[in-house]
């Protein structure tokens, strides 16, 4: 629809929208997170759903105990190498469209345990993360900010055309390979389709 | 000219509305998913949900129902306890008739236990 016509109509008190716009509006205001916490960040996640911070204002208070009913996975806490396969499998078991918020320093990079032998250095090595939140742990406000960022992202998603969202693309994968707990490390140690190691650039 | 009044017409109208009201959103959701959300089944997604772990073995296992026999035999001791406590409290003031009645009651219960024992119920198979 022509933008000029739309503004002209809205001046006359006629509100116009697109099917995509109203669909995304509904979607972004009823995101159901998976009830799933890994470490201390989960306490902040719980706090953000309680009365003081009240995540329910954003339509996301319905934490689902099963991945079958969840849209959003909040990876709240340290992902150990023993836990990583389960996290990826839970993500695989969620129906599309699904989103991931990596909450806290551990979930995005390994955090204070980065040098440890048993901690995964960021869950984005295995599953596509939509929003990263730094912090140790991030305050509930930070989680809410991440949530609002995700809402903006959902609201801008296209359902058709070449720019369409992943879930609307029949070719895009819905499941990602689950790593195996090997004798020394997870195998494979990263999924190169979703995560590329940073390239070293040396000056001179 | 008298207007023909049919109360069943209203019922029919309500029935149709009651059927259409839930069916239309379901049909719309189905059409929407056909157009905009392609099916993406997979090995993990179709697997049994067990808190992220891979399910091991078969879920179709047999549970022993023999526990109910223990439940019934337990009832013997359960009822006994309820009556034995007031019996013990009032023991010194009890008449001979009361004492004999209580003994008959105990005998009946013990008889049941002995019968169950004889049947081999108390051995877990």
- Overall mean pLDDT score of chain B? 87
Distance between the termini of chain B: 84 Å
On the 0 to 100 scale, the average pLDDT of chain A is 90
Secondary structure class of chain B reads mainly alpha
What best-fitting shape of chain A do the alpha-carbon axes yield? globular
Largest sheet of chain A: 3 strands, parallel
Trace the largest sheet of chain A across and list its strands.
Answer: 1-2-3
* Strand content range of chain B: under 5%
Structural class of chain A: alpha/beta
What string gives the helices and strands of chain B in order? HHH
The helix/strand order of chain A is HHHEHEHEHEE
Describe this structure in words.
The complex is a heterodimer of chains A (204) and B (125). With 204 residues, chain A is an alpha/beta fold. Chain A contains six helices and five strands, in the order αααβαβαβαββ. Chain A has a three-stranded parallel sheet. In chain A, strand 4 (180-181) and strand 5 (186-187) form a beta hairpin. In chain A, helix 3 (41-49) crosses helix 6 (140-155). Chain A is globular. Chain A starts with a helix and ends in a 17-residue tail after the last strand. The mean pLDDT of chain A is 90. Chain B has 125 residues and is mainly α. Chain B has a domain at 65-119. Chain B has helices spanning 7-36, 67-89, 96-118. The mean pLDDT of chain B is 87. The A-B interface holds A 23, 66-68, 85-87, 89-90, 92-93, 95-97, 159-160, 167-170, 173-175, 178 and B 36-38, 40, 42-45, 47, 49, 51-54.
């Amino acid at each position: 629809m022509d933008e000029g016509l739309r503004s002209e109509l809205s001046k006359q008190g006629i509100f116009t929208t697109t099917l995509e716009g109203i669909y995304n509006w509904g979607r972004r205001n009823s995101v159901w997170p998976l009830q799933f916490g890994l470490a201390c960040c989960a306490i902040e996640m719980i706090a953000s759903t309680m009365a003081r911070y009240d995540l329910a204002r954003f339509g996301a208070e319905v934490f689902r105990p099963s991945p079958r009913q969840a849209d959003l996975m909040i990876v709240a806490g340290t992902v150990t190498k023993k836990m990583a396969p389960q996290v990826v499998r839970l993500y695989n078991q969620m129906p599309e469209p699904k989103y991931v918020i990596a909450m806290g320093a551990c979930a995005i990079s390994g955090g204070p345990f980065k040098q440890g032998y048993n901690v995964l250095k960021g869950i984005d090595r295995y599953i596509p993360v939509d929003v990263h939140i730094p912090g140790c742990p991030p305050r509930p406000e930070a989680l809410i900010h991440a949530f609002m960022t995700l809402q903006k992202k959902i609201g801008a998603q296209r359902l058709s055309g070449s720019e369409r969202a992943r879930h609307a693309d029949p070719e895009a994968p819905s499941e990602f390979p689950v790593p195996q707990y090997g004798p020394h490390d997870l195998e494979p140690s990263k999924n190169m389709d979703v995560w590329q190691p940073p390239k070293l650039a040396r000056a001179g | 000219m008298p207007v023909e009044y049919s109360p069943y017409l209203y019922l029919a109208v309500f029935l149709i509305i009651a059927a259409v009201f839930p069916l239309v959103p379901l049909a719309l959701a189905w059409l929407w998913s056909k157009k905009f959300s392609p099916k993406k089944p997979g090995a993990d997604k179709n697997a049994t949900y067990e808190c992220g772990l891979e399910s091991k073995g078969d879920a179709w296992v047999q549970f022993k129902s023999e526990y109910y026999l223990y439940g019934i035999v337990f009832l013997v001791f359960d009822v006994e306890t309820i009556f034995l406590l007031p019996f013990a409290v009032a023991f010194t003031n009890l008449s001979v008739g009361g004492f004999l009645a209580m003994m008959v009651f105990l005998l009946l219960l013990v008889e049941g236990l002995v019968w169950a024992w004889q049947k081999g119920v108390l051995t877990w198979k």
